[in-house]
Amino acid sequence: MAAGLRTPLPNAVFAHCGSDEYGESSGPVDLGRFFTSIIVVSGFALPIILAHSEVIDPKASVMSIIGGGLVYGTILAYSAAFSQEDSDYE
């Protein structure tokens, strides 16, 4: 669950670096997305690897993946809801 809480941090830090006038992303924005993808993938892959190596119980792995998915899904839904409202006012 700690990885789920850190997930939006790279996007939040690099999101204000902006994009060019044609809507293409800049390097820092892409770097933030890259760091976010690493955190998200490791949040789902690490419990599977630990369960496979019998460090944790497979049930704990499933619960960790479900919990991480819920946290990340909530963050995405919250971001989408507020970015959609901002675009309506422009």
UniProtKB/TrEMBL annotation:
<dbReference type="GO" id="GO:0034424">
    <property type="term" value="C:Vps55/Vps68 complex"/>
</dbReference>
<keyword id="KW-1133">Transmembrane helix</keyword>
<keyword id="KW-0472">Membrane</keyword>
<dbReference type="Pfam" id="PF04133">
    <property type="entry name" value="Vps55"/>
</dbReference>
<feature type="transmembrane region" description="Helical">
    <location>
        <begin position="62"/>
        <end position="81"/>
    </location>
</feature>
<keyword id="KW-0812">Transmembrane</keyword>
<feature type="transmembrane region" description="Helical">
    <location>
        <begin position="31"/>
        <end position="50"/>
    </location>
</feature>
<protein>
    <recommendedName>
        <fullName>Vacuolar protein sorting 55</fullName>
    </recommendedName>
</protein>
<comment type="similarity">
    <text>Belongs to the OB-RGRP/VPS55 family.</text>
</comment>
<dbReference type="GO" id="GO:0032511">
    <property type="term" value="P:late endosome to vacuole transport via multivesicular body sorting pathway"/>
</dbReference>
<dbReference type="InterPro" id="IPR007262">
    <property type="entry name" value="Vps55/LEPROT"/>
</dbReference>
